[in-house]
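Lab notebook, page 48
Experiment: co-folding of the full assembly
Goal: obtain a model of how the components sit together before planning crosslinking
Operator: M.T.
Materials (sequences as entered):
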Amino acid sequence: MSQSVENLTHGVDTPTPPVRSSTLVTRSLRLWRTRIGASFVLLLVAVAVIGPFVAPHTPSEFVAIPNSPPGGDAGLLGSDYLGQDVFSRFLYGGRGILVMAIVSTAIGLVFGVAIGLVAAYARNALDDVLMRAMDVIMAFPQIMLALVAVSLVGAQTWVIIAAIAVTTAPRVARVARGAAQPVVERDFVAATESMGLSRVRILTGELLPNILGPMMVEASLRLTYSIGVIAALAFLGLAPDPNGANWGTMIQQNQIALSTQPWGALAPIIAIALLTMGTGLFGDGIARTAAGIDRERGDE
Amino acid sequence: MTWLRHGGIAAFVVRRLLLGVLVLFLVSVLVFAATQALGDPARAILGRNATPESLAVLQKQLNLDQSVLGQYLSWAGGLLQGDLGSSLAAQAPVSQLLGSRLVNSSVLVLCAAVISIPLSIALGSWAALRREKAFDTVTSNLMLVLAALPEFVVALLLVILFATTVLNVLPAISTIAPGERPWDAPAELVLPTATLVIAVAPYVARIMRASMVEVLESDYVEMARLKGLPERTVLIRHALPNAIGPVFQVIAISLAYLAGGVVVIEYVFNYSGIGSSLQDAVVNHDIPVVQALAMLIAAVYVLLNLLADVATILVTPRLRTRL
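Observation: model returned without errors.
Model output:
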């Protein structure tokens, strides 16, 4: 089918094939900011994934007098407010946040892109209805809606994931609609319509590949925020396991001892900071690369 | 109806107001549906300690014995008359509970806005003028990194730097006793305000820079320069008013964001504002307080967006004439 579409649409208005996402990533890695961002992310993902296998203690094991400084029995980073090993808890504490952030952002992205594409393609009352509905959800700051959901049902994993996904989708939908609107107007979309392709095929096969660049930027931005909100909820005492090893929970529990044993809070603070900086830098690198490719094409 | 479509700025404001009311109505339905109709709030509040008698009492107190529509009408009707319901935990009217905290939070957000808006407009403009030079590179990258950090991480890094581990020059927490006002102890406002400024300034500065870069490349700025006007006049009279339009939107979004972001920051600094009441209310399942705060923050958001749209129209003649 793609052969016939290309023949039909040839010379109509399809001079620029969409940039492949793999090309975009490879090219963006020429920029230093993308390399630094990617290495931060890889480092922290490695800590979160491998950490639990190499941790010297279990997260809830008593190793030394509470709030002992690093060294001796207290280990590399000292002990926390209950005498547990900070280093081991640090190694265990990233997995939950990372899994929840990735799952919720992915769900939000899928729904957001779908809603944005449908709205952009519809160009009628459905567009207005969908976007006004998105406005209503966006009237709540992300953390606010998550707090409301948690206050009703409790801080269970699925509640937090659902709350983040629901608040991510409208923001993604707005960007997807904005990016897809100019594409919908182009002749090759009309050409595929006249060939009788189904709407689903037009949305996924023709529109989606043309907005992949902005969507990748949006994905890394949304992941940055999701990590922030999930960590913040744990910091407010609203993690699925209130005493579990979780970077946000660790910060809350050890904040009080900052002046005597800073590592209990500092290690997870640094972890979250590097992780969000990493996704932020990576997204910016992709954005710059995509803008650069557009400029080259404009000059041609 | 035709007046609404072609009535100039006044009609535009009315139209946006009506849309805002519609959004707020939908928000209230959403908040109500989420908090009241999903499951049994009385059971959620009492948890495992629920006995049939206490459940019945609480259900009566929450008006759960009425129909769903009746419940919504009495709640929304109360909201319109300024009655925000009463807190279950404190057994007191929500408005009385939140009154002074609302003042405290507003002071914090106001301080942050007054500092961060001029600061980020200046930073963004200056970076645009020195485009691709050292100042621009350093601020752009710094802003990018700061924008990525969750605000509670920024807050704690500031505490570590200035209040505990590295330097010990500022109070790490801010305790406002009942009856006291936040400005009674200005030193305690420094770190929370700084956190909010850092949370907001990067976004505004980035948009300001982008907008200013575009304006500086425009023909009319070149014309003004060619006329021999001093650079200062070119910037302040010609470039700035044109560049500031898109910035209003971002300022509004950022301020609305502050209203929510303040929740976590107040918790870090133990600051007695609406944020910490929200955190308390969530932990205690104090649903009337959660409902009231959700509506309040959503109303702030809608209002700020309305103001931003009107301000953008007022400073952009191109858009104004199209109305």
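Interpretation: The mean pLDDT of chain B is 78.
Next step: discuss with group before ordering constructs.
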